[in-house]
Design a protein that fits this description.
By secondary structure, this protein is an alpha+beta fold. Helices cover about 35% and strands about 15% of the residues.
Length: about 60
Amino acid sequence: MDYISVKEVAELWGVSERWVQKFCVENRIPNVQRFGRSWMIPKDAKRPCDLRRKSETENKPEGK
């Protein structure tokens, strides 16, 4: 399996390195590996959904 760094994933997903690290700590990225103080993320990993945002169906008033 090919791995890429937190910095590379942050650039690819358009988020900060800190957010990628947070995803890793919370086990929201499958098959992530920790090597010392560094995280290695599978190259084909998908970006987890942002739990801070509600889905569009939740934002729509009922009946409209």
